[in-house]
Structures are given as C-alpha cells and as structure tokens.
Amino acid sequence: MKLSERWLREWVNPPADSAELAARLTAAGLECTTRPLTDDPPRGVVVARIRGVAPHPQAERLRICEVDAGHGSALKIVCGAPNARAGLVTAAALPGAVLPGGRAIERASLRGVESEGMLCSAAELGLGEDAGGLIELDADAAPGTPLERVLALDDRLLELELTPNRGDCLSVAGLAREVAALYVVPALGPREKPAVVSAYHSVDVTVEDSTGCPHYLGRVVTRLDPKARTPAWMRERLRRSGLRAIHPLVDVTNYVMLELGQPMHAFDCAQLKGGVRVRRARPGEKLRLLNGQTVELDAADLLIADGNGPLALAGVMGGEPSGVGAQTSAVFLESACFDPATVAAAGRRHKLNSDARYRFERGVDPALQRRALDRATVLIQQICGGEPGPIVEVGRAPAHGATIHLRHGRVERLLGCPIPARDIPPLLARLNIETQAEAAGAWRARVPTYRCDLRIEADLIEEIARLHGYERIPARSYAAQLTPHAPSERRRSLDALKDVLVARGWQEALCYSFVDPRLQDLLLPDLPAIALDNPIAETMSVLRTTLWSGLIPAWRYNRSRQQPRARLFECAACYFKDDGGSRETLRIAGLAAGSAVPEQWASPPRAVDFYDVKGDLEALFGRDAGEYRFEPQPHPALHPGQSARIFRGERPVGWLGSLHPRLSQTLELAESLVLFELDAVALCETRLPAAQPIPEFPSARRDLALVVREEIGAERLIATVREAGGLLLQSVRLFDIYRGAGLPEGHKSMALGLIFQDRSRTLNEAEIDAAVANIIAGVSAHLGASVRG
Nearest 5°: phi and psi at 460? Predict the structure, then answer.
C-alpha cells in the first residue's frame, strides 16, 4: 500500500521525520519504507490561466495561448494540447525552468511564432503517465504560484507491506491510529459531520444472505451535476496511492476507501430496476464487470442484484451496465460489510483482483459503514452538488469486537520479561482496547470492532509486546532442558542422501512446484496434474507430478548460457490427484547432461550414459544396494531401449533412463539427457549395519561364461545364479559381456565371477564343483542358458 505522508500527518503528526517514522512502524510489525514523491521534481514551473486561444497561422494542430502566469502582462505560449481552452488553469514552464530529465525551457520560435514558455502535461512534469493533454488544476489556484506549493511536491510516499491480519491499517485512519498508539499522540483527522437529508428518494434493500452480508447500508443522492470535475487535491492523493482519477463519483468512493478503509460502490440510479437484493447467484447467470470481462456466476457467488439480474459481484467488482458515467445525475451509494471468506473465494474463482477484494478478504470494520457513507455523501455534495436521501440500513453494526480474558502471569510467561501489571491497561488503552479488572492480575478486555485479528489471549499479549517495544525485551537463555535428538539408525536423513550426490559431482537445484502443463503432458501424458485456480503465468499453471518438469527447463536455461555439462538433482514434493482430493510424495530426482567427466587430458571426451548414472545411484543406495534391482520397463518420457524401473525388493521405488528421442526433438535438445527419479521416503529407509567376523578359511573363485538370449538382463541372470548357488555362494560379479562370432544369433555371453566360502571350514573341490553344477542346471532350466565352450 502506498500513502502520502502529508495526508497521514493531517491525521496524526508524531515528533519524527520520515525515516524515523518508517523505522518505528517496521519495528512494530508494519514493514514500511519511505521515498520522495519524485526523484527529479520540476523547477521553475508555476500555475497559469489560459485567457484566450487563437489558431496558429502556420500549423493546424498548434494554437497560440494567451496566458496569465502571475506576471501582470499576458504571455504568448504556443501549444498543441487538445484540451487547451480559455479559462483552463494549468502548469506553465517559463524560460529558465527545468523539467524532469534536465530539459531546460527557453524562448523558442515555433513555425514563425515566438513562444514564451511551455504549457505542460502530467507526464512532462513527471507526475503521471497522461501525455494526451495539459494537466488541469483547480480553478481557484492563483496564477504565478509555484507548482510545488500547489501540488505539495515536497511530499514523501510511505510504502507499506502489511501482513494479512492487519487489514485495519489499509487506510489513512487505520495507520493514523497505529502511529498515535506508538507515539502516544492524538489522532485527529478531518472534522466529519453527517450529511443533511434533503430529499426523500430511496431504494428498497433486501439481504437474503445475512451470513455473506451482515451489514448493508445504501443511500440515494439526486440532482448531481454531470459536468462536475474531481478537484486536483483529490486526484493527486489518489495518484499518490496508486489509483487514477476516473469520475468524480468513483473517485469519491475510492478516496473514502483510502481514507477510512471502507470499500464502497456507486450505482447509476437510472440503471436500477426495482429494489436492491443481496443474494447468491442463480444457475446460468452472467455478469459483465467494470473491467470488460464477462463471468459465468457460481451458486456460491454473493451478488448485488435488482429486478433485472446481477449488478455487482459483492465485495469484488461492480458491473459495467450499472456503473456511473458522464450522464449520471442520481446515484445509489453502497456501503456494506461482506464476509471475508465469501469475497476471497469469489475473487479466486473468477481470477479477479481489486482494491475492494484486497480489503474485504482481510476484514473490514463491521461498524464503519455509516461513517463512510456519510463521509462520501458530504464529499459528493462538495464536488457534484446533489440532494441526499435517507440511509437504508439492513443489519446492525456490532458495538464492540471480541471479549478476551487476559492474565498478567500469562503475559510475563509468554514474553519472558517482567511487565508491571499496572502498565498493561494503559498500553492496551492506546489501542482503544477497554479493560476491566476481574481479579488481581486479570482483566476482561473489549476489543474495538476494527481489530478483527484480535481473538485470543495470545493476540493481546502480542499487542502488549509491540507497544512495550520488542527491543526492550531482553535476550535470555531458554530455561528448558533440550535433549539432543538421537537419529534412528534405521533411517538416513535427506541431507545424507544429498551429501552422497554432491560428493559425486552433482549440484542441488531448487525449482518451482508450479510448472508448464505442456511439458508435464509430454513427460507423463496419462497422469492428470492439479491445475491452479490463480496461476502466476500460463507456463506455471499446474502442480508438478514429476521433478523432471523443473529440472529439464533448468538445464535448458543453463545450456543457453554456455554451460555444456550439468549434474542437477532436486529433492522436493510432487503432487497428485487422489480420490477427489490430493496427495503429495517426496521425491529425489536428477538430470545428467554433457560429458561423462569434466574436460581433461587423461581420457578422451565421452557423453554421459545410462551406466554412469546407474553407478551414482548404486553409490546413493549405500549399504542397501543389494536390495535394489533395475528391470527394463517402458516409460513415456524415456528411451525405449534405455529405461529401467527400480525396485527395492518387490516395491517399485523409481525410474532411470535416457530422455526419449521424440521429446529431445520436441524440446530442441541437442544432447542426450539421462534422468532418474526415486521415492525419497523409501530411500531413507535402511537396514541396521551388522558386523561380520573376518573369515578364518579361504574362499574359492570359479569363473563361468554363460550364453543367454539377448533379452535376458544381468540382474535376472545374477538372481537366478544366487538362488541356485545355495549358502556356499557368497558373491557374484559380472566382469564381461561378449557379442559376436561363435555365438548363436540373438544371444550374448556373460562372464560371472563366483566366490564360494564356508566360515567354518575349507571347501574341497568336490563341494565347489557340485555348487557350480547346480548353478549351471538352474540357469539352464530357468533361463535356457548354456556354458560357453
């Protein structure tokens, strides 16, 4: 939120400069920065009134303006602005003036006519983006007055980043209350008086949903001047708060919202048919909004409607057909309190953001509506004239907010420092919180209606800490004894897994959970993703179902910046639809691209392949590597001949493979990528380490070359050999694979090193030969393998 400091100081003027004020607000939990209104203000620019306008003899689009700049005699200034007219009060940069950007103004001849200065637009003065015409000032501004004095260009802006619970500070009045409490000074504000009813026009109001709208007020103001114009002071305050002037009636409602914190809406009475109804949407209803968007309404949407149908989406945005315009002469002003959850849900559902929604979903004072309506009525009368009718009210404003019981002992226990009991009621009184003693060191606190965030005792204690000053709470050692957590030996931490990959040359990446749905569909076409209701961008509109959808764009980003080699991994959650709901699982995934090893003299360059990454995964499995196996299985994102599903026992835990060539072409990737993804929870599970004594008796090795069909993998062969080898077979090592001459077509030879050993005695040749024979028989029976001759 942006706010004029000068406007705030009209309400409360603490003894502090801008920097001190911003620092004090930040220390109290309202993050605030301050900056000048403009870094390069215009110099030498004054107020000027155009007395007359004559056509330029040499140019159709130029006119010669006779200008009173407070010098006594009129000046001639050539101008091409379309709104230059007699009687207009604007800004004139006279010779010697300097505009933003260092542009110096001098006398000049324009098409044969001498110009004694320059009439300026808001854009040329650095006061806005409107360059289509001259800036228009109030008619009562005296010619010759420096512009910086008229528009208060020495003002500064306060920029606040408020937490969602502090909706009460989204206005000048709310921030003034906070500043007054911090500095213990009075918050005055403008003198407000109720509007005098001078007409008897009214509109019937019916609230069908009191939960969605507990308090609704409305008033008709007739006989408005359609030619009225928003005064410069109001336009400037709106501009400094980030809003543009639109129409005097709209500007007044926006001004009251900024000043008091109550969003309002103005309906053109000529467009209303029958009474106003606050109700839920009906099937098939649509509404064209002020932003030009037409929305199909949901049954949960709360509407403002009349006899013809919807007029506005309550608390979010008004409808275009009922909005005020250049011919509006009577208006129905709405000032209401809407349920925050209802407004927030409607805004998210239709992807609509507005200043009204921003405030309502954070909580608007339910007792503010009458005050805001009177304030808006008075301002409209000052600007547009008009005759206000009586206020129509449905519902009642609460007298106070929550009632909370507060204990002095609890205050000191939570804050960890002594605060005298006698100091607590005065501290809370600065926030307009009334306290009544119930017992010694106990009070009943009554919260004002605008503090919707104060609900429990801890909330009040936080307010006491803020006003007491966080900096005055001493730092102390924690009194409790903290017992170090003993990690289970049956689990590995995620940090331990990450350390293994980092030690092997991998780098951790942190990617968004929101990903491009097109890439997601390419990687997992049969797995629907969870779509976001209000995405940041179209390329970040679904939740990821695989970490690859973040790692691949990360690699493309690095590759386009001359990084030819990458080993990226990420450990994060993936999200899935599950029986009408959703679930998330923790995954660890990686991407390898480029050369197998960094460029060096000792070995020729070679692209990373399936087995390089497989070796890294086996290192990642650690002492549990024997429990994992890799089985060839197809995956829609992986190369048909280079993809494997990873099992731990019989439990599938992940995938490994090269990116499918079709996807590489679609994504315009020149290099082959090797990808893996594992269930991180399964990976963290580990067996207890068990010490084995050093064998006292020697082992024996036998090498066996077996001829098998091409489709039989090493994992399957080794598993069969282990099963047939019995207890004497301690380990099996694959040390060679041969394809070529001497073998039947479609076959290959795999050479295995078999290690036999008994821990109680030395094995004899007959026992070893018998075990080898059992292995040969087993692989022959189960796999059709034969011993290579």
Answer: -65, -40
